[in-house]
Design brief:
The structure is a homodimer. By secondary structure, chain A is α/β, with parallel strands linked by helices. Chain A contains 17 helices and 16 strands. In chain A, the strands form 5 sheets. A 4-stranded mixed beta sheet of chain A has the order 2-13-1-14. Chain A has 3 domains: 271 residues, Zn peptidases (Aminopeptidase, 3-Layer(aba) Sandwich), CATH 3.40.630; 230 residues, Glucose Oxidase, domain 1, CATH 3.50.30; 142 residues, Transferrin receptor-like, dimerisation domain (Transcription Elongation Factor S-II, Chain A), CATH 1.20.930.40. At the A-B interface, β14, α15 and α17 of A face β14, α15 and α17 of B. Chains A, B: This is Aminopeptidase NAALADL1. Chains A, B: Its cofactor is Zn(2+).
Chain lengths: 688, 688
């Protein structure tokens, strides 16, 4: 589905992550112009609102079968970034957008030079058990088993941890749960000396790179990562219970991924990865594993973990579904598969290089305000075939652009209309998400549904919109059709980033008939057309006020006692939120009044649309989080704290509890107050 | 005159520096509306351009005598920031802007809590010569001599170096020229041990605070600063050649000032100095003297410098007009006024505190696009009476606001018009500065004239516009009527920041009859009305392209050989500048086409105005200069290099020549290229 979380593309930043950005202007009206003597041509087009018939027409033309065919074309071959398969998709997309009948007004490429990491095709990475005499007692599988022929494609990249450094460290194995700081601390508390050990960790709980970054702080020399069937397969672990017999991950499946905490090209933080751009030395890169790291399948992980020594056993929360009791190590148990003196060796032969790649952009020009843009995007590159991640989103986008392109070419949409959205903020929920064709359960795919109403949350750093919302403050939205979490505990769809994320998998287990895809296309197109064509932008700023108030309540509940003790008052924050809410209500009222005017002045409409459009920018402070690349959005930045409140404040509070630096808490509180005051002033009417 | 360079206000930041910000919307039309059946009311007001008769009317109504009276009222008493005299001016200005006949639409105060430095009124600061036996052989004058009664006002603050720390260090005296790094280095090269010395330095060449910051690096323990008559008086140094007999500085005159390298409140960098704002600990403040520092008059400086020991004598460039040959020290010569063993002691009793103060803001509401603002501002606080700095600018502003306010009240200006400009970029030169009433020599004041044509340069960090242009990227302009530099070598007008900058001084020697003030008011009002009322903003973006090209030429000439040697190419910079120039020419052409349309669409006009208005923002990069508070404007930031080229590039180049860090040069070049590419994209037409 559109917007599946992927990490690989973050490192590509502007290069690939927005592979399918469509840009076009906001169209405020699109009908044939009624000529009246004495009045200028543009008069009537300026105050015309969205035409419901246009929406209806769009919805009717979206075809599930075409989306299915798009998906088949897009995922027929592996298309990892900058590989041949990926370059072929550049051409596929350009061809679609340049089609004489259904293409867009224009389509173009924008080239970048991006820093990537690859495994050495000649020397496979591995995780081995090495006995005292130096001989190998076990070696991990090189790649997934061939179950549906797709896995045998010679372009399937063997599993690796992108950006992990090469090396072959060897040591006693320990089980470190999810590789969080607290996990390693727990091992130390158990009396385990982590120096020189190899840690095996399961996916989840911490970022991929963090498992190694954290471990290295404790003396760990190599990290192994696997997907526990308890986290992704509802405990199913046998070959016959998993794909191709169900949507569950087979025992040999390995999640690849970008082991990188930041987004954007690693060598050119804050700047476009162009030929002329200064590149930092590789040793200044942060947020990637400092020690060799390798992912394996749970079949191999079972061999390692189920033979670990150590007493007591790992606590309940650390246990998984490998079919044995997990011990912590260090090393293997006496009565197991391997001699107790055996060690584990992580063999990594990754290399890094700068490759050329392109963004592909297509455009439908706006007819009234062609300098105002609505963007719709998705990344293009996958880890293997990438049927769900990312091609499901691309397949939907191509169908949306086909229908809109056709409508433009046929003259229904006058002089072009905005094509595609992607970036819109959560506030859309009241304004825009109740398009009547978008609703209902979907029974064909038991685990997948679109819960009515939409489930809405804040945007994390989890996908292609990250640089738009977090760095640029562009109002953003992520629409995904996902599975019913009451029916499965899977952390993500099980084939994620493996050689089993194929067209066959998608059409068999995810969306037979592609009707969910069709629903997403209709929803997305609906929002897109409304954003582009509505006289007044369909964004409800009061929702933001509610969110701020919720965040405030959490902060007050958790922090107030300590803050008061350190003479820091939350009252100015509360005052700022009240001001924001009053301003939002006032703007809504002015919008309502404007809607009742028969002939509103286009500049009055423009003024209100600017307030709606620029609100998100007011929450940016590029100096708020100097340690976090790109994160500038004070309300939505990433946070380490588990509390759903202002991230800078929450993290500063946690730190102050440790180090006593309450000044930093006051500073972060100041930053929050200032952006909310700024945001309120954006929404307020001009001074009289 | 408006915009005289002052440093004090920088520390007040948003609190006082923009004391007289007038804000109002861009008025695109202002006539009575012609009603036509079938067309909305707003139709005709949207495409009406500036009315020349309005300008004419404004020009005719500006009265020199009223400006003179304003100046008398404003400078009758000392009004240092947050003192009683300053608070009285808040009321004076509010009263003027709330006048029923000539006031503005509204006027208001905005309170801040600002960090200030004051001398102890009970314990005067001094610079003394102390003999070996501990007795005092000399002590500097406490304040200026009373020459015209103004100096006897009990509210005249005694000379001090604001923000210099208290203390009474003592040591051998050395003469350190202007206190630049190179000056101290030169002294060391002469074999002088600076450890434990007191340095006497003259104003000029380096920032006030830098004289002490630099000296402390060499072991200097106290700094004395004076104004050399060679720098400010064309060498005139006697009582009968100086004020009240001429405009020159009397021997007892002392330039006070803010010894602070940054702008904005020192405790709240990047945040408004409000009650809720986090304040950094005082020991984290940078950019102020780390050692006691005190300014004195040149009469006292002569006693110290003309008795210095040391051979050889100071080199020619270091000599001044005190009437003796300057030696370097250390200490006093054998045959002079003081025993050779005497030392100089700098006695400073300054204290720092947080005071409350207000911005005063007045507003004329725009009638068509009331959310677009033109700002006109000046600071309010002075060091003493401050007739020229800052009151001349305020006197002019009050006359402009009186005339515009009156025109609004009388209904000539419909529904209000923008009041006051201040912030506009240099590009105004072609578009706007040739108002026909603004020209000519002014013979009444032999040293002051407005050279025709305007002398135009880039905006430094030297005045109240600093935070607007450097931090916010708001197109800014500084209009000043200044003296003819072919007739005097004065660094600045001689009474600057002394107790002699009085109304008497201004009316006698600066602008008898206040006709120069009148000319400034007409010029400023002219620009202001054009900015507010023109259908298309009168800004010529091609001027920016010329400046970029000049900067490029300087960079190529000076840096290319070394850059090539380090594999850094200037070609992408040249390509970016070419793109910018083409984009600017294209925009100019589109503007010309738009002007020829009988009824341009208001949204087409809005689009072009946005491009003109937002251009300056494209040059901001808040991460370009992390060490320089607030400086974000990549083209106009301060620089240490003497080369008139891209500041970050020039400084990185100079550093690389010392430390070999050519990567930083490449990074700064990248930053320049990126902002120019961004700026070009702002100007380019939307994609087709």
């Amino acid at each position: 589905m559109a917007g599946c979380g992927v990490r690989w593309q973050y490192i590509l930043g502007a290069a690939l992550s927005g592979a399918l950005l469509l840009t076009a202007g906001i169209l405020l009206g699109h009908y044939a112009i009624y000529k009246e003597p004495q009045t200028p041509e543009w008069l009537h087009s300026l105050s015309r609102d969205l035409d419901p018939a246009l929406l209806e027409d769009f919805m009717n033309q979206v075809e599930a079968a075409r989306i299915g065919q798009n998906l088949k074309d897009l995922s027929s071959k592996p298309h990892m970034a900058t590989t041949k398969g990926d370059e072929e998709l550049v051409q596929l997309i350009l061809k679609a957008w340049r089609d004489p009948q259904t293409g867009l007004d224009s389509a173009m490429e924008g080239q970048y030079e991006v820093f990537l990491s690859f495994p050495d095709p000649e020397k496979p990475n591995s995780v081995a058990v090495v006995m005292e005499n130096g001989s190998q007692a076990f070696i991990s599988q090189e790649t997934e088993k061939n179950l549906t022929a797709d896995q045998a494609d010679r372009d399937v990249v063997k599993p690796y941890a992108a950006y992990a450094p090469p090396g072959n460290p060897k040591g006693k194995l320990v089980y470190a749960n999810q590789g969080k700081m607290s996990d390693y601390e727990y091992l130390v508390q158990q009396g385990i000396d982590l120096n020189g050990t190899i840690a095996i960790t399961r996916y989840g709980g911490a970022g991929r790179a963090d498992k190694a970054i954290n471990g290295a702080k404790f003396g760990v020399v190599g990290v192994v990562v696997y997907t526990d069937p308890g986290d992704i397969n509802d405990g199913k672990a046998s070959a016959t219970e998993t794909y191709p017999y169900s949507w569950y991950l087979p025992p040999s499946g390995v999640e690849r991924g970008s082991y990188n905490s930041h987004f954007g090209d690693l060598l050119t933080p804050y700047y476009p990865a162009k030929g002329f751009t200064y590149r930092i030395p590789e040793d200044q890169i942060t947020g990637i594993p400092p020690i060799p790291t390798q992912p394996i399948g749970f079949e191999d992980a079972k061999t390692l973990i189920c033979n670990l020594a150590g007493n007591p056993v790992a606590e309940a929360a650390w246990q998984g579904a490998l079919g044995c009791v997990y011990h912590l190590g260090p090393g293997f148990r006496q009565d197991g598969l391997f001699p107790n003196s055996s060690e584990v060796q992580v063999n990594v032969h990754n290399y890094r290089r700068i490759n050329t790649s392109s963004n592909v952009m297509g455009l439908i020009r706006g007819s009234v305000e062609p300098d105002r843009y609505v963007l719709y995007g998705n990344h293009r590159d996958s880890w293997v075939h990438g049927a769900i991640d990312p091609s499901s989103g691309t397949a939907v986008m191509l169908e949306i652009s086909r229908v809109l392109g056709k409508m433009v070419k046929e003259g229904k949409l006058r002089a072009g209309c905005v094509c595609v959205f992607y970036f819109l903020w959560w506030g859309v929920k009241h304004g825009n998400s109740r398009g009547r064709s978008v609703s209902g359960q979907k029974d064909a795919s038991p685990t997948y549904c679109l819960p009515p109403p939409f489930s809405l949350g804040s945007l994390g750093a989890g996908s292609d919109y990250a640089s738009f919302i977090h760095y640029l403050g562009i109002t953003s939205m992520d629409i995904a059709y996902t599975y019913d979490r009451s029916k499965t505990s899977a952390r993500i769809y099980p084939a994620y980033h493996t050689a089993f994320d194929t067209f066959h998998y998608a059409e068999t287990f995810i969306d037979p008939g592609f009707t969910s895809h069709q629903t997403v296309a209709r929803t997305a197109g609906n929002v897109l057309i409304r954003l582009a064509d509505a006289l007044i932008l369909p964004l409800n700023v009061s929702d933001y006020g509610e969110t701020l108030q919720q965040m405030y309540s959490v902060a007050r509940e958790a922090f107030q006692a300590d803050l008061t003790h350190h003479n820091i008052s939350l009252d100015p924050l509360w005052a700022a939120i009240n001001r924001f809410q009053a301003a939002a209500a006032g703007l809504n009222q002015r919008i309502a009044n404007l809607r009742e005017e028969a002939n509103p002045s286009p500049l009055d409409v423009r003024m209100v649309n600017d307030q709606l459009m620029l609100l998100e920018r007011a929450f940016l402070n590029p100096r708020a989080f100097p340690e976090k690349y790109y994160y500038s959005h004070v309300i939505m930045a990433s946070r380490s704290s588990s509390l759903a409140t202002f991230p800078g404040l929450a993290d500063a509070y946690d730190n102050a509890k440790e180090d006593g630096l309450w000044g930093e808490v006051h500073k972060q509180l100041t930053i929050v107050i200032q952006v909310i005051e700024n945001a309120a002033s954006i929404l307020e009417p001009v001074a009289e």
